[in-house]
Design brief:
- The chain has about 200 residues and is an all-alpha fold.
- It is about 70% helix and about 0% strand.
- It has 2 domains: about 50 residues, Arc Repressor Mutant, subunit A; about 150 residues, Orthogonal Bundle (Tetracycline Repressor, domain 2), CATH 1.10.357.
- The radius of gyration is 19 Å and the shape is elongated.
Length: about 200
């Protein structure tokens, strides 16, 4: 690999390479050498930007968490528009893209990464925890607007939707479930709180 050549946005280039390796070969194949080879850069490039490989992986996870937080703001803004089921279905489809599902698997697979994330203040399973908070926040907004029952348990509904959504999307070998399957899950989980709002 050439050295001394300036690489524009090396961090993003390395993140993109890591995501490709993760999707293609799984978490056990994700090594610093695999990432730098995939990115087409010298191994030293990774170590110039990150203290070690687990620090790199932790930043990869934090990058994905930032995307969930941006999605959360957009989902909250959608409260009161469209249908609750439609908004949640769209959110789950966007949330559980193949990279996000693979990163959740990576966090579960690598003890060192989980330890690093916990030291940085992460709770639960990163990405899943933020996703649950996103759904809970949205449902809280919809409850305040009267579009779901006033006594709806936003925490339990969020956990059910995130857990069920992850099960739908996980281990699909790159083929996500169709929107109808996601809508069926969402509609089933929220049926009671939507119906009781109408009574």
């Amino acid at each position: 690999m050439p050295t001394g050549v300036h690489i524009r946005d090396a961090r993003q280039q390395l993140f993109d390479a890591a995501e490709r390796v993760l999707l293609r070969d799984g978490p056990s194949a994700l090594t610093s050498r695999a990432v730098t080879t995939e990115a087409g850069v010298a191994k030293g490039v990774l170590h110039r930007h990150f203290a070690d490989f687990d620090a790199f992986l932790a930043e990869l996870v934090h990058d994905r968490i930032a995307r969930v937080e941006a999605q959360s703001a957009a989902l909250r803004e959608s409260a009161g528009t469209g249908t609750v089921a439609g908004n949640l279905t769209g959110a789950l489809i966007e949330l559980f893209d193949p990279v996000a599902v693979a990163i959740v698997g990576l966090v579960i697979f690598r003890d060192e990464l989980r330890a690093r994330l916990r030291q940085a203040g992460a709770a639960g399973i990163p990405i899943m925890t933020e996703a649950s908070a996103m759904i809970r926040s949205y449902l809280t907004e919809e409850r305040a607007l009267g579009r779901i029952a006033a006594d709806a348990d936003a925490d339990s509904l969020a956990l059910s939707l995130i857990g069920g959504g992850h099960m739908l999307f996980a281990d699909r070998k790159g083929t996500p479930p169709d929107a109808d399957a996601v809508d069926k899950l969402v509609t089933t989980v929220i049926a009671d709180v939507v119906q009781r709002r109408l009574l």
